[in-house]
Amino acid sequence: MSWLKTDDRAAMSAKVRGLHDPGATGERAKEQRCAAIGHWYQILTWVAGERSDGFVTADVVDLFGTKATTTRLLRAKFDRAPLLHKITVNGTPPVCPCLDGRAWPKDYEYAVHDYLDYNPTRTENDVHRAKKRELRDAALKLAARERDADTCRYCAKVCKFSDRTSDNGLTFDHVDPLVADGINNLVVACRGCNRRKGRRTPAEAGMILLDSRPAPTAAPPTTVTSPVTAPDTTTDTTPVATPDTAPRPDQGTAPSPEQQHDQARSRDRVSPGRDGDGPAASTPTHSHDTGSPSPTRPGPPPSRTPHRPASPYLRQSRPFPELHAGHPPRPEDDPPAGSR
Fold it and tell me: pLDDT tens digits, residue range 1-33?
């Protein structure tokens, strides 16, 4: 299901309040305004459902309204742009900032003004759906966790998969938010870095994508053996043990105070690692990912979009058509002629 975004202040807009014929007042002006708004809203729902990026065919405009309401929607008032644009008879598109940089598609006669300023394009919807499918793919997420060793690729912090609330919890982030490219664009990120990055690339957020590191291996435990003093056999002065003082076979000879001190110093030299007792794990070095994307060094693939704004949902102009889920559109994906 496609959702439609509209301005919550549209009801008080000068353009909406001016949707009546010149000279109409009172109840007549209200009726004309309500009819035009209803016509406009039905056009918006069709555009959102068909994902036509704001362009409308003439039969749809005629289906949802009358010639009078269409004229009101095409009329500019109060030095504002109209709510609906129409291509000229000779095929020349109207001049408006909301249409700059956009090619008018064939067989479409109308366009909703400022539609892409509030709603994502069809391409952005495709990418959004593809990214949601990736985040539901258990095998893909497991592969990302194993490659990154549950370590945030932006701050090198070890994340906890079971932590669902704090900034240290493990989440998944798309390095390039405008691309769905599987393991090449999905990394592990702590919740704090994921919130800070938002819907931006690392460069736009002032962050660095660190190299992935292999999963740490647990070092074998180091055991410290206590030296046992060998019995002195050169003399016969060893007293005969009585039943109360004879040492048991599992006890051995107690070390001297000097030997206990040496054992304590040996234990101090062995520092516990991240996975338990053993030598401390060496801290890996990270550098900025400047190479080409690969399964072991993921990163944003080369962008085919010449302009990437901070927020894809607030672009003033965009080429048409654009990428589809990170890949060029294929001719076989287009609907057959006459099926729109």
Answer: 668 888 888 888 888 889 999 999 999 999 999
Which residue type sits at 24?
A
CA proximity to 24, closest of 76, 78, 72? 72
Closest by Cα among 26, 29, 25 to 16: 29
- Alpha-carbon distance of 340 to 108, in angstroms, equals 10
pLDDT at 167 over 50: yes
- Cβ neighbour number for residue 321 with a 10 Å cutoff: 16
The DSSP string of 157-206 is: PBPBTT--SSTTBEEEEESSTT---GGGTEEEEEHHHHHHH-SS-HHHHT
pLDDT in tens, 238-297: 454 444 444 444 444 555 655 655 554 444 443 333 333 333 333 333 333 434 444 444
Place of tokens 């979009």: 305
| DSSP letter, residue 115 | G
Query: Contact, 143 vs 149, CB < 8 A?
Result: no
Query: CB-based burial of residue 123 (10 Å sphere; 0-12 exposed, 13-18 middle, 19+ buried)?
Result: buried
Which residues, including other chains, have CB under 8 Å from residue 336's CB and lie 6 or more apart? none
- Residue 105's alpha-carbon distances to 55, 312, 319, in angstroms, are 8, 21, 12
Is the bond preceding 94 in cis, omega lying within 30 degrees of 0? no
Helix axes 26-50, 67-74, angle to 10 degrees: 80
Q: pTM surpassing 0.70? A: no
* Residue scoring higher pLDDT (115 or 311): 115
Contact 58, 25 (CB under 8 A): no
As beta bridge partners, residue 171 has 189
Encoded amino acid at 339, one letter:
S
Residue of 123, 124, 106, 66 lying closest to 340 (CA atoms): 106
CA separation for the pair 253, 230 (Å, rounded):
9
